[in-house]
Amino acid sequence: MSAVVLAGQRTTHNRAQRRLSRVALYIFLTVLALIFAWPLLYTVYTSLRPFGEIVNNQNGAFSTPATLNLNNYITFWNSADYPHFFWNTMVITLPAIVLTLWVSSMLAFAISRFSWRFNLLVLMIFTAGNLLPPQVIIVPLYRLYNLLPVPAPFSDNGIMYDQVLGLILIHATFQTGFCTFVLSNYMKTLSKELVEAAMIDGAGIFTIYARVVMPLVRPALAALGTLLFVWIYNDFFWSVMLFKSGDKRPITAALNNLSGTFFTDPTLVAAGSLMAGIPTIVIYLLLQRYFISGLTLGSAKG
Amino acid sequence: MSQSEPKALAPAPASAGAGALATKKRKRRYSLLNRRDKVLLSLMVGIPLAIFLLLIWAMTLVSIVLSFTNWDGVNPIAFVGIDNYTQLFTTYPFFWPAVAHNIMWLLFFVCLATPMGILLAVLLDRPLRGSAVYQSIFFIPVVLSLAVVGFIWKLQYLPLAGNGFIDSAFVALGWMDPKHAVNWLGDPTINIWAVLVAASWRHVGYIMVLYLAGLKSVDPSLREAAAIDGANERQTFIHVVFPVMAPINVVIVVVTVIESLRAFDIAYIINHGKNGLELLSILITNSALSEAGLIGFGSAVAVILLTISLVPIVLYLSRVMRSENQ
Fold this sequence. Notes:
The structure holds two protein chains of two kinds.
Chain A: H1 2-47, H2 51-54, H3 71-79, H4 82-113, H5 116-131, H6 138-147, H7 164-188, H8 192-200, H9 205-216, H10 218-234, H11 237-242, H12 251-261, H13 266-286, H14 288-300
Helix pairs in contact in A: 1-13, 3-13, 4-7, 4-10, 5-7, 7-10, 8-9, 10-14, 12-13
Chain B: H1 4-9, H2 12-32, H3 35-66, H4 83-90, H5 95-124, H6 131-143, H7 146-157, H8 165-172, H9 191-216, H10 220-228, H11 233-244, H12 246-262, H13 265-271, H14 280-288, H15 295-325
Helix pairs in contact in B: 3-15, 5-9, 5-12, 6-9, 7-9, 7-13, 9-12, 10-11, 12-15, 14-15
């Protein structure tokens, strides 16, 4: 009897303790989440305030806001020509995604047809290259881009430097390493019999790639496509280094340009940063599942 | 080990048979490829491989060669032996600060940002109300461009006159005299820490998501077995979950090291990597792709960055090799 009571007491005690640690966990996570969300929330708040109210205000960020409006966004849209720079980003990002997925899916498919040794060697070359800090190759690449002749419709100065094509090329090259690695792992999980059956039926290699393998890797392509969009959209380094003219630069690099001419005003900095950041946040929130699975496809294997 | 050997030996004849069948199958597969297919396959691999080798690996080699020259981009190239390196190590004032900052970056990530990401992953892996919301909040900085991250944090660190949040808060709380406000980004002894906080803001979420995916892939029966054996949550994590997460752990280490070596954007946005924010990556572009035109010198910095980068790269590749061999 007393033993039962004791056991009962212990479980209630345990339960109370567990509830307490659960509350502590929620408090910890919520505080941390607020700290993490704060810089972005503050940026939103700043972007809504007129410059006149905060300039030389002794209370700084804690001055009471008299007005909150979207004027900074309108200014950024019009005088900083946001649509133009957003378009610049898209002209680079979308073709680079298509090119990367096309090339890396073909590569991943083709190397799986070759001997295992060759297969591994190619993957090593790509993966190792993909991990290099881009700054290691920028100096010779910059010189090479200045020497490479490119004919008229693709280049307005006759070379690869300062051209959208040059940016697409370097993005596709760098990202092909990662995507080939992921896709070749994904293709290894597909049934070999399917490909062999198609071969016995006399299908050519290209038919097998396009009609048999590609439909099966569609989930991996969707995940990688989402990931590539965010990565290429977010690029700053290549566009600052490989574009000379400011008006060709994508939005992220243009922000840096504009900081000289427009950005003595923090409220405008806030609006501009948010307008540059919102597209990737929207893509992430809409395609969260693909985005996360793209990230983890790459790390799951090793 | 010896106990399992007979078991392993038993099906040996059968597996040998399967192996023979597999080789036969493979031969047949290759014979199915006609000439046209073989050419097509070679092109599918050959063209991208050639472009990759040219743009990445040939450029790496050229960097190494250029590091032994004093090329300025205009005059003819002259080889100067290891002059660039001796100059880097002895007289160039920004080299050792840059090395120190990269090491600080790595240590800050290793000691704070990465463990915090892992901790968040472990906490959010349990069945928790609102887990997805917490995950999204911690992850949103990861989808932002480092350029945007740089500007968002600039707003926090600006001086009082620029409406910077941190100074405003400190003054409002009475922790800081407005006349002697801290200049977070301008003070060369402080600004690297300010940048590290900004970089960690993004790194934590990245590690969290990678680790969370690893935790999800751990066989639940392992945890159940540990629980039955009386292990508490911490013991289960340290002795059961962490060891089976070895592949993800390698990825986490590689990502952490590579990210600290690639560090560039935030420092570049704040002050072009000068005055307290020197980094190896920025030294390369500042010396070689500027009016200074110190191509040979910048390449020497690139070679040093390359040499350090090879450590995590080789670690990662050997890991991949091992898992492919299994």
